Amino acid sequence: MNRPYRNIIKASSLYPVLVLEDWFSRRARLVSLRFSQVILLLGLFVAGLYWWSGAVINLPLVIGLALLYLVLVLVVSLIEAYFRSHYYGSIIINEYGLEARFTFTVGRILYWATKRKDFLAGFLASQTGKRMMRRAGIKPAEWQAYLSERREIIELNLADRSKEILKLRPVVDTLLSADSGFSSFLFRHNIKPADFLAIADWVVREIELQAITERWWAWDSLRRRPRLGADWSYGVGYFLERFSHNLLVDQAAWPSPLALARPRLPELDRLETALLRSKESNALIIGEAGQGKMELIWQLAREINGQKAPSSLLSRRLMLLNTTLLLSRTSDEKTLESALLHLLEDARDAGNVILVIDNFAALARSADQYGVNLAGLLDPFLSVEHLPMIALADTGEFHQVLEPRTALIRRFERLMLAEVDPAVLLQALQDQVIGLEARHRVTFTYGALKEVVTASERYLQGEAVSDQAADLLVGLIPIALKSGQRLITQQLVWDHVEQKTGIPLGEVTVEERETLTNLEAELGRRVIGQGEALKLVASAIKRNRAGVRNPKRPAGSFLFLGPTGVGKTETAKSLVAVLFGRPGDLLRLDMSEFQGPDALERLIGSFDSDQPGILANLVREHPYGVLLLDEFEKMNHDAINLFLQIFDEGLFSDATGKRINARNLVFIATSNAGAELIWSATASNDDPGNLKNELINHLVSERLFKPELLNRFDGLVVFRPLEQDALRQVAHLLLNKLVKRLRDRGLELVLNDELVELVATGGYNKQFGARPMSRFIQERVEQTVADQLISGELKTGDRLLFQDGKIKSLI
User: Fold this and answer.
1) What pTM was estimated for this model as a whole?
2) Would you say 485 and 445 are in contact if contact means Cβ atoms under 8 Å apart?
């Protein structure tokens, strides 16, 4: 059964090293060498004491022991040297030869599989397998139980891969394809095949990075160190040295193993091309705060230090201008202009400088305040090749401060940074946790990192996704340590994000399941006669919580059409009451307040007045819930176009250019448009389907709504006028609320058909629907009870009955 593995292993040039590892493991060798160092120091100390005390030393015995010690150390050292000669020459993928047959990592698995006579058992017994299962968040007891209970042992056919180097990912892929039982076991632990393959890639990269770090004596590692005196032949200026810093000497500029493993930003090629131009060799990097502007600069620094940048850039120094320091040392036009001019002249005269200006917008704004012509000052330096410049600006600052200054930025190549790809961000987090895990002695699972990326993209507001992900990653560690956890799982991420945002994540709890299952029925007890609306809204909420909706759109968007007082607003209130238990948490905007030409600015903010947007602030502060857009048709048409984007993508930008995530909100827009058409169709008992089509045609022909806007809604719901039976049910609902209030006062109101009929008939108005019922109850019932309590006709403890048009006490 295990012969194919044995044949593959014995045919490999790594076979002697694998045998050595089994016989005398590397851990045992390293412990032996460290122990021998202790023995050497102890022996020298004892010998010194003997010599100092003048005692007679048995010299032949000492020499014999020393030689024996040296022989043992030499043997262990030679074994370790033999191991390293194969290990470091093979562990890096591009150094494997065909005679190796497989990578070192796969070789260890195959060796264990041969000993266990079972590939899966060998895989899980190897250090690589254990590492992968830990990254998957599966405890040893769980996979050991699976091994003991499985009925069939599956062996892999690796003979077909004899002409290629066997690597971990293809071997794991073959295992998952061949062993459906193991795949199902992983799936039960929420690990899909693609996830397990990604875990394999992560573990391999960790092993390779560790090997590269250990092999410090290799030429590739030595040349990553900063070069001594690399710029001694160039001039050094006082102002340049005072207000700027050479990035190439910083730790982040060293092409370390972790830094080299990060994906190369696509904008780096464009940046290098801009810097290589014969004139106007300048670039303006634009992106959100934390989106990666400085990471792009660090990647350029690492390419220069690693001798991988274009040759004309290799001798350049990346000098970062400290804009804050410069502005703090200048107080008027003369000092700022003089300091800038001297600094630029120093950089130009040095001849090997790329000047990086951080927060370029702040420099431009301060120059305006002092009356300095920044464009005129920079232009002579921007137009020559001796001094390439890189300016950095946040997106909002660029649009607000720099974009209108065409004379200032016309000589810059603009590089707009795209949002970080989730796969790239996930790999960056994998590299980041290596240091965090070593420092805090915790372990992140792959599922936890995936949820960090997802949460940063879908649920958190304000900063760039990469910045939010990094902050969330670091914030999870103290939470885990406080709760005594060393393994950080996706459940911990769900709990933390839910606490921060209020958005329910993870598995549906028993209480939630009961609420969601009965959601439509519970809404039906609060909203009478509108079954279609309740079904649509309840379905959207269930899709959102189950995680099967389109994540690139809002949780739900509905247009409620119908006359006043038929339950449109009440449906939104009831939804919030059922889901959150707090009807007052309904988010609401009266869109009739946004009819003027300034409507869009009031919603998203204004550049000129520097005022925040009402909608932008509302969504930032309440990223999860139900937002009611009342009287939607009355809003200015330019502002309505904003909701075309929101309903389609779930995102919009405020006045500063910052993206705002509205994908966790349910939008309910209400409108009275077409009410007369609904009334006439109801009177003639028209088919509901035909009514909706007629209503849509009416809204489009009257230019009340654009067709593309109507198509963006998840549902258009027609609220018909309430029939008499429905009006009675509404009256009963409202009277029940009064009963509860009176009970708190010590009075018991007995409801009867006479009172319900009075409210249903007297409180109904064709123009306002059932909305006047509350006022009718207040005037005809509440006021009567209040008058009789004050006059003494009623007292606490009485049972009340409405009869013959009057409130009477039954006691």
Assistant:
1) 0.76
2) no
